[in-house]
Known about the structure:
Layout: H1 7-17, E1 22-26, E2 29-32, H2 33-49, E3 57-61, H3 66-78, E4 81-84, H4 91-101, E5 105-108, H5 114-122, E6 180-183, H6 186-193, E7 208-213, E8 223-227, H7 228-242, E9 249-252, H8 259-270, E10 274-277, H9 283-293, E11 297-298, H10 302-311, E12 323-324, H11 329-334, E13 336-337, H12 341-344, E14 349-352, E15 357-361, E16 374-375, E17 379-384, E18 396-403, H13 414-420, E19 426-434, E20 440-445, E21 450-452, E22 455-457, H14 459-467, E23 472-482, E24 486-495, H15 503-511, E25 522-526, E26 531-532, E27 535-536, H16 538-545
Parallel strand pairs: 1-10, 3-4, 3-5, 5-6, 9-10, 9-11, 12-13, 24-25
Antiparallel strand pairs: 1-2, 7-8, 14-15, 15-16, 17-18, 18-19, 19-20, 21-22, 23-24, 26-27
Protein name: AMP-dependent synthetase
Region (Disordered): 110-172
Organism: Nonomuraea glycinis
Amino acid sequence: MLHSLSLSDVLAEHARSRPQVTAAVDGDVRLTYPDLDARVTRLADALAARGVTPGARVLWLGQNSHAVLELLLACSRLGAVFCPANWRQSEDELRFILDDLTPAAVIWQPSETTTPLHTTATTPPPPGSAATTPLPPPGSDSPTAPPPPPPSSDSPTAPALRAGTASGGTAEAGATRAAVWVRAGAEYEALVAGGAVRDFPQVADTEPTLALYTAAFEGRPNAALLSSAALLAHSTSLLVVRQMEPGFTFLDNGPLFHVGTMMFCLATFQIGGTNVFTPAFDAEEVCRLIDAERVTQAFLFGQMIDAVVAANRESKYDLSSLRFVSHSQEWDDMITVDDSPWCRSKMGGYGQTEVGGMLTFLGLAPGAAGFAGRPSPLAQVRILGPDGAEVPPGEVGEICARGKTLFSGYFARPDLNAVKSAYGWHHTGDLGRREPDGTITFIGPRLRMIKSGAENIYPAEVERALKTHPAVADAAVIGVPDPTWHQAVKAVVALAPGATATAEDIVSHVASQLASYKKPTHVAFVAAIPKRGFTPDYDALDTAHGGGNYPGA
């Protein structure tokens, strides 16, 4: 495979070309690239001896650790798939992931949610129960869960898993009992030490190697599968926009089960830099590590930055190595304000897990009309209508993409994969607009549509206009029955403390920004917008404010 380059291959090269460079720091653990390469080889051998075969899944239930990077690289070396799960989830949510992913191995840290799962999974079932039925070995045909159909040539996001490895799901009774459970810490270190140093067959870089669970937009979360090729392509884009160079040191203080931290971890790895791991965000510890390890970048946003400033108000730590975005005068005085396109644009752009992280970068389009910027050089973007045709610039449609950075589909979701890859494009589920200068504006999630006469109205677009009113703190839009137009737009508005506005003010403000047919004909003022997670609870809003008559309802 002359043209293949996996994460494992990158590590093998770093071990030879960067023998003195520190690859990972985690508390007292300091690993050079040769150290990391040797540990990954031993870990891969140990996992293989315990049933982790090509296409099998390895699950991490725990906080940030150098073990996350090691496990990902070991899975790349084996041709297996690594999944770091959100350890903050409830026991029931994690149990769903166990049943859905059917991992061959689980590496776990004890917690109030993971310990009961470990106890259940490692307790022998009663004799004769379904859970005692042996599972078919990975890669074989299962009578209860047949392998998915082969990917279609015109469906670029169909999952590229080997036959028999994508069955997953709860249909495999007792599947989680077959997993080998290894406790992080001493047990994990013994696992690594017990592995042998040997050669492994080369794995194609198009094979999935990372699974990240995404939002439950269909009532349950879905594991997005990313290949080495996609991850390295995304890292290449990030290296350019962030202007990362050898010697770059990244503090992995954000959760590694989210693509936002993982994408910088891997870009740092790809450039031959240093990843510094800390279990979770703690402002004092972040300050200490930036100072001690001369960190170049960390995973920081608004409130986190404010917490770091507060922790270092007496200048106890030297944070000048940190090259980051401007935020406040106190912050700017502590760090080095960076001049890369990424930092100048305040890390602006648009992305999601399924595109490897960022699909568009504002840093590639200074002065752009579209605040999401321009697409990655390794991806294409189209704004498509419901019929799959591209809509003209200035019109709202769904942001769709294809290219080198895209995922390989969702694990064990053949029907969803077919829908998401319709017309040969990945459908993000988000609305956007191509501006006259060619840049992209992100409108919001495509949650539902209002049909007023012959016009399609997307709540996210109207909500964005509402939120630009200076008196509006939050807003949501629903469709209400209308005897003439079938539906009309109703705005539910929460005003900022002390602010005042009339319904007429709200309507005229929206009319000044959007086409007249998109403006609300009804306005309701409330103390707060009900939420489901981070988005408005539209079902509750419909019930409280008379919503209905939606297309297809």
